[in-house]
Amino acid sequence: MFVKTTLQHFSELFFPRVCVVCGNKLVSQEEFICLNCQLHLPRTNFHNQTDNPMEQLFYGRGRVERATAFFEFQKGSDYQKILHHLKYRGMDKLGEYIGKLFASNLQGSKFVNDLNLILPVPLHPKKERKRGYNQSYHLSLGLSNSLGIPIDNSSLKRIVNTKTQTRKNRYERWRNVEGIFELVNPSELEDKHILLVDDVVTTGATLEACISAIHKKCDAKISLLTLAIA
116-159 pLDDT, tens per residue? Predict the structure, then answer.
């Protein structure tokens, strides 16, 4: 233990651990995000609200039981860096850490009462190989480990490799993801209450496509959770 701690301190002389939000050096008990940035994280607390803005986003777009997002995303804010580091800087463990933080907010709430499975929104295999991981899976892993809800990472597949949704308007986003998901193990989800997990929701087109793919083949309840809402 002494040797491990000494090596860690030596390593941090050359590669200091810094907060992904503000860039300040982390103290020994902090991971990824400093306590000050955690304190000021623009949490939505949607899991404590019925008829919240995220649930309203999906009205008339598929059967959704509940919906929540951890924090509000504003373009240009320092908290945008969390998503950037998670998706483009290879920080898969950041996803697990954020998942655990979110889970600590959800524990004891009605939002997680009767959930049976967590389904991360899948990437196309080509995109996942290029990135090296699926950020939604690692977010799900943090949630699963803390909440004790198993992950199903195989039933929902992304069968079309689409272009990025960035800079597309609402209609273009919907067309870009139409029919790109397929449910391959419908019996595994039948009569279950599923928590569908993604990193960020903007127009809701990707999650809507997932909901459609699931409900085409099985009768399952679906709730939604994202790291951020834009």
Answer: 999 999 999 999 999 999 999 999 999 999 999 999 999 999 99
Query: Encoding tokens for residue 224?
Result: 């939604």
Residue-wise pLDDT for 75-105, tens only, equals 889 999 999 999 999 999 999 999 999 999 9
Q: How far is CA 206 from CA 73, 165, 182, 201, 219, in A?
A: 17, 9, 13, 8, 20
Tokens of 7: 């090596």
Angle at 90 between CA 75 and CA 160, to 5 degrees: 80
Residues shown for the chain: 230
Residue 117, φ and ψ in degrees, nearest 5? -145, 150
- What backbone phi and psi angles, to 5 degrees, belong to 221? -80, 145
Pick the CATH number of 42-229 from 3.40.50, 1.10.3470, 1.10.287, 3.30.420: 3.40.50
